[in-house]
Amino acid sequence: MGILLTIRTFAVWLAALAAIIAPLWFAAAGLGSRIGLWDWRFGLGTMTREIGPNLLFAAVGLGALALVLLIATAILVKERRAGVGAWVASVAAIAVGAAGLWYAASVAARAADIPPIHDISTDTASPPQFTASLITRRGADANSVDYESKTDPRSGRPLPEVQAEAYPDIAPIAVTAEPLEAYQAALRVARELGWTVSTESERELMFEATATTFWYGFRDDIVVRITALTDGGAVVDARSVSRVGVSDLGANAARLRTFSARLRDRLDED
After folding, report:
1. Which CATH number fits domain 119-266: 3.40.190.170, 3.30.530.50, 3.30.2130.10, 3.90.580.10?
2. Are 114 and 106 spatial neighbours (Cβ–Cβ below 8 Å)?
3. What pLDDT, in 10s, does the model give residues 234-264?
């Protein structure tokens, strides 16, 4: 029985370590990429997608093993029952591993349900264009901003057609406010959302900004354009493009959706 108790203790310690290390590993992968300790490909690809699932499976396995040993020794060696901490560590390892695997599966399912695109515009017929300076800042390895040439990698269909089907609610934002008022409101909303504004032109009624994600530090560039209507009011168009990656998992559409809602609220539009 002494050997069984030793194995139980060892398994519980390993389960406790797995419950702690697994979430720290994923946090390190995301934050390390954001602050530049390593490239996003290593943080997302190697640490998260390759090594991460193995850690999660290990956590579940170690937690289950520790739990079985705890139950077995509780029955066979009643006078040497483990404390509450051992049971908590075992259950925590299973919970952490299972939650991580469930989340990974949900992300994969979401990715399968949406087209692998990363360039979203409220105006798909004449999308707002980025300035040369911002294109330069995006870098030579960044995704192209040539909207007209883009297609869905899976089906080969034109980007406007694919976007309209996947995100039918992404559309030009018509407001009753005058163009300058709409521009100033849009600029304030962009800053409230945490975007870093890099170009702003009140004369041209446009501005550019960059949104940086908390995890992995992904940068998506946004351009906003305001067009005056002949009978009063204005139309606000926005375009959001990821710098890297094929699929944005719906992030750019969600960003424009949030921007549109905030802008309408600020201008008291229905």
Report:
1. 3.30.530.50
2. no
3. 999 999 999 999 999 999 999 999 999 999 9
